[in-house]
Amino acid sequence: MTALRAVAALAALGASALAAAATIDELDVRRNRGRYSLEAEARLTATPESIYAVLTDFDDNAYSRISRVYKESRYLPPAPDGTPIVYTRMEGCMLWHCVTLERTERLETDPPRYIKSVALPEGSNFKHASSEWTLEPDGDGTLMTYKLEMEPDFIVPPIIGPWYLKRTLEKGGLRAVMRIERLARELDGRPNAPLPPLPDRAARAR
Q: What burial class does residue 165 get, using C-beta atoms within 10 Å of its C-beta: 0-12 exposed, 13-18 middle, 19+ buried?
């Protein structure tokens, strides 16, 4: 896998990971050898119940409503112990290089406050991937804490470090960042303002 493909892969996963953060208050990205970790804290003006419903809706490629990098999302038959199993397929591109990210995950939940997913390596192109969402009421909204650990099952050049992922998350995906909040507010019966225009290329470069 080329360096650009590795960048595209990790950036796509990172941007989608924070798609639920309408207002990101804290963001920390680290790398320990081949494993990346991300922690974020954000506030959304929607209830935990509705945010939980959006985040656990995988049927009929529902995750494509959050971000266009999701090309497929669905529930699979549950594990023998009854644990839900979900599948997602994402595509990330940079210039002419594209890569597909696949994750088959066990979904552990405590509605409506907690969601944890753990990737099954045999159905994923990650050696390890796990995520945790914690949703706590905060006034008329929700305080969301998000943690992600991932170890890609491909070589990532050392130059592709936390600085790149953090920059991508801070600058990119503004519309995706707002979509989960909007979907959750619709479930709450709250009005949504029109999405603001994306910054032009010159503004994003500053």
A: buried
Which one of 3.40.50.2000, 2.40.340.10, 3.30.530.20, 3.50.50.60 gives the CATH number of domain 3-205? 3.30.530.20
Its pTM stands at 0.79
Strands (E) across 139-184 are located at 141-152
Q: What angle do CA 117, 133, 170 make, to 5 degrees?
A: 110
The residue assigned the tokens 């790398």 is 31
- The single-letter code of the amino acid at 202 is A
Give backbone dihedrals phi and psi of 51, rounded to 5 degrees, phi first. Answer: -65, -45
User: Helix, strand or coil for residue 53?
Assistant: helix
Can you tell me whether residue 188 is helix, strand or coil?
helix
Each residue's pLDDT tens digit, 11-44: 555 555 555 446 666 767 787 877 888 888 888 8
Pairing of strands 70-76, 114-119: unpaired
Q: Where are the domains of the chain?
A: 3-205
Q: How many Å apart are CA 82 and CA 97, to the nearest integer?
A: 39
